[in-house]
């Protein structure tokens, strides 16, 4: 019994010491410093920057941009409603999801789990711009590119992408 309790305490302490804290705000930006580890990172109105070689679990913002620096890693999903999503040599393990955001997956970046652009279900006045999805040469997007609304899709000649489903995108080639 003593050995069982000791084993449980050891396992619990290892998990507790290795667990990274969540970072959350209602209004304001969040910056995950280079090399830092964090759990879920979220804000309602503000941008999120994940510094080089930083590791986080998931990233979510409603109204704000997200930038992953070179070597940054998101183990889970990257989500927003409005704002630019830029992956500049980083990795996303659980896919990207947006409604109105432009997405850039730069050379040297990797996205597992695909990209999903949802249909805008909110009200709007006037003409809405199509989101722009850019996947540069040398970038990898594993998984389906699912578009529930019309988008402008720019794919570099040396990019690796999964199948495209849903509303056919307006395709543009980039070198």
- By DSSP, the count of extended strands is 21
Termini gap? 65 Å
The stretches of 5 or more residues where confidence is low (pLDDT under 50) are 1-18
Shape field = globular
* Average pLDDT reading: 88
Descriptive account of the structure:
This protein is mostly beta strands and 175 residues long. The protein has one domain. It has one helix and 21 strands. It has one helix at residues 2-18; strands at residues 23-27, 30-32, 37-45, 48-50, 55-63, 66-68, 73-74, 78-82, 85-87, 91-92, 96-98, 103-105, 110-112, 115-117, 132-135, 140-142, 145-147, 152-156, 160-161, 164-166, 170-174. Strands 1, 3, 5, 7, 8, 10, 11, 13, 14, 16, 17, 19 and 20 form a 13-stranded parallel beta sheet that branches. Strands 2-4-6-9-12-15-18-21 form an eight-stranded parallel beta sheet, with no helix packed on it. It is globular, with a radius of gyration of 18 Å. Residues 1-18 have low confidence and may be disordered.
């Amino acid at each position: 019994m003593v050995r069982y309790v000791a084993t449980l305490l050891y396992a619990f302490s290892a998990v507790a010491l290795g667990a990274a804290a969540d970072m959350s705000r209602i209004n304001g930006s969040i910056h995950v410093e280079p090399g830092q580890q964090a759990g879920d990172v979220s804000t309602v109105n503000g941008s999120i920057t994940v510094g080089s070689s930083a590791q986080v679990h998931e990233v979510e913002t409603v109204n704000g941009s997200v930038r992953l620096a070179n070597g940054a890693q998101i183990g889970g999903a990257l989500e927003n409603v409005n704002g630019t999503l830029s992956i500049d040599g980083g990795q996303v393990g659980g896919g990207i999801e947006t409604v109105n955001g432009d997405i850039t997956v730069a050379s040297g970046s990797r996205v597992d789990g695909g990209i999903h652009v949802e249909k805008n279900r909110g009200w709007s006045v006037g003409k809405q711009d199509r989101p722009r999805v850019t996947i540069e040469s040398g970038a990898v997007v594993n998984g389906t590119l699912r578009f529930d609304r019309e988008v402008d899709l720019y794919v570099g000649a040396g990019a690796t992408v999964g199948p495209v489903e849903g509303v056919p995108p307006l395709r543009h080639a980039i070198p």
